[in-house]
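Task card 7
Instruction: Convert sequence to structure tokens.
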Amino acid sequence: MKRFGLAAFAAAVLCGFSAFSASASTIYTLGAGNSSLPSGTYPSPYATVTVVLNDSTDATLTFAGATNATYSYLFGGAQAVDANFSGPVTISNITGDASVTYTNNAPQNVSDFGNMNVSIDAAGGNSNAFTPISFKATLTSGSWASETSVLTPDNKGFVLAAHIFVIQNSNGSNPTTGFAGNSGTPSVGATVPLPAAAWSGMALLGGMGIVSKIRRRSKQA
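Output:
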């Protein structure tokens, strides 16, 4: 009974760790600029968006502005960050620059990138531009089978967009603003790493098993 109890406990804990580490992510690149962001002048990419599927009805999106030798790209203004979800969602836990007020003002047409069913506005202009920003989306009907099913193309074929503020690294000026949408193939399958504490716990379980086996052999001898 003791051996069964330890094995059952170990299996339960390991299954719990496996479930924890199964949270998967998809990383999109915002590399398609509108006419205000000509790639010859303002090189792409402009941002990345990481979509993490927490469970079948809960996902977290994180938008992060890109930078290069000459420019940094921030978010701001109307339609600051935008997404088209494959189902009705509620938005919560909007986290960005604490000095900026955010409003979910969806649905919205986002420049050349179609009608997005989630569009978050940010108060202010260049002086309030920011990066990064994240928010949680909770599906109110149905479920998501995988991280790749969280978003769906809109009427223009895009799933993500953002209002980009271009900042010149040398002097902090803002030569232009524009909009960018997703481009290329997203990176799929990255998993949330198992924390060190979890690995320590598994090592402890392994040690318990070894000690138990040594004790059993000692008794048999």
